[in-house]
C-alpha cells in the first residue's frame, strides 16, 4: 500500500483522508473509491480501484485505532515514522494535518466492537425495461425491473448491487416496502 500511496497526489490523498474521517464520524455513509479513483486516473496517475480501496481500508484502520488509543497528533506521527516501510513525507503531512484538525472528533463507541458488520443503504435506482428478442426467441416482449442498490460496506467502500425482477416479483417487493413503511409509522 505504501508504494501506491507514493503515486497519489497530495490533494487527492487529503481528500481521501478527510472522507475517511467523515465516515468514521458517521457524517457520510462511506468513501466512494470508484469515483475518486476515476478522478485520480484522469489526473494521469496509474492506480486501480482495488489498490485505492486497500489504501482506504488501511487509513480507516489507522484512524480508528488512533482514536481508540486516544493518540495525540505527535504520537500518531511518531508511530507512523517508526514503521518498517515508512510513508512518503507528503502522506505523513496530510495525516498530521487531518488528524490534528478532525481526528479528535472521531466518536469511539463502547459498542463499536459489538456492532453487526452490515452495510449501510445509500441510494436506490430503478428502471423498467422490456426484452424484445433473444438468440433463441424472436418475440419475447418480456417486461422487467432493474434495481440498483448503492450501499456502503462496513469499511465504508461504496458499491452498487444490481438485480432484475419480473413484474410479479417487483409487486411483491413493493408490497414488502409498504409493510415496512406502515410498521415504521407506528414507531
Automatic annotation (TrEMBL):
<comment type="function">
    <text>Scaffold protein in the commander complex that is essential for endosomal recycling of transmembrane cargos; the commander complex is composed of the CCC subcomplex and the retriever subcomplex. May modulate activity of cullin-RING E3 ubiquitin ligase (CRL) complexes. Down-regulates activation of NF-kappa-B. Inhibits TNF-induced NFKB1 activation.</text>
</comment>
<dbReference type="Pfam" id="PF21672">
    <property type="entry name" value="COMM_HN"/>
</dbReference>
<dbReference type="InterPro" id="IPR047155">
    <property type="entry name" value="COMMD4/6/7/8"/>
</dbReference>
<protein>
    <recommendedName>
        <fullName>COMM domain-containing protein 6</fullName>
    </recommendedName>
</protein>
<dbReference type="Pfam" id="PF07258">
    <property type="entry name" value="COMM_domain"/>
</dbReference>
<dbReference type="InterPro" id="IPR017920">
    <property type="entry name" value="COMM"/>
</dbReference>
<comment type="similarity">
    <text>Belongs to the COMM domain-containing protein 6 family.</text>
</comment>
<dbReference type="GO" id="GO:0051059">
    <property type="term" value="F:NF-kappaB binding"/>
</dbReference>
<feature type="domain" description="COMM">
    <location>
        <begin position="120"/>
        <end position="187"/>
    </location>
</feature>
Amino acid at each position: 500500500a505504501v508504494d501506491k500511496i507514493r503515486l497519489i497526489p497530495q490533494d487527492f490523498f487529503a481528500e481521501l483522508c478527510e472522507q475517511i474521517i467523515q465516515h468514521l464520524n458517521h457524517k457520510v455513509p462511506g468513501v466512494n473509491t470508484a469515483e475518486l479513483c476515476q478522478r485520480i486516473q484522469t489526473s494521469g496517475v496509474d492506480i486501480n480501484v482495488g489498490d485505492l480501496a486497500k489504501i482506504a481500508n488501511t487509513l480507516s484502520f489507522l484512524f480508528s485505532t488512533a482514536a481508540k488509543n486516544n493518540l495525540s497528533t505527535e504520537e500518531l506521527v511518531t508511530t507512523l515514522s517508526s514503521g518498517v516501510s515508512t510513508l512518503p513525507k507528503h502522506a505523513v503531512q496530510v495525516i498530521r494535518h487531518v488528524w490534528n484538525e478532525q481526528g479528535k472528533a472521531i466518536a469511539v463507541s463502547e459498542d463499536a466492537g459489538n456492532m453487526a458488520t452490515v452495510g449501510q443503504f445509500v441510494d436506490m435506482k430503478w428502471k423498467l425495461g422490456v426484452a424484445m428478442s433473444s438468440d433463441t426467441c424472436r418475440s419475447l416482449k418480456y417486461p422487467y425491473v432493474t434495481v440498483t442498490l448503492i450501499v456502503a460496506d462496513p469499511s465504508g467502500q461504496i458499491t452498487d448491487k444490481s438485480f432484475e425482477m419480473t413484474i410479479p416479483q417487483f409487486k411483491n417487493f413493493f408490497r414488502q416496502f409498504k409493510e415496512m413503511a406502515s410498521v415504521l409509522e407506528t414507531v
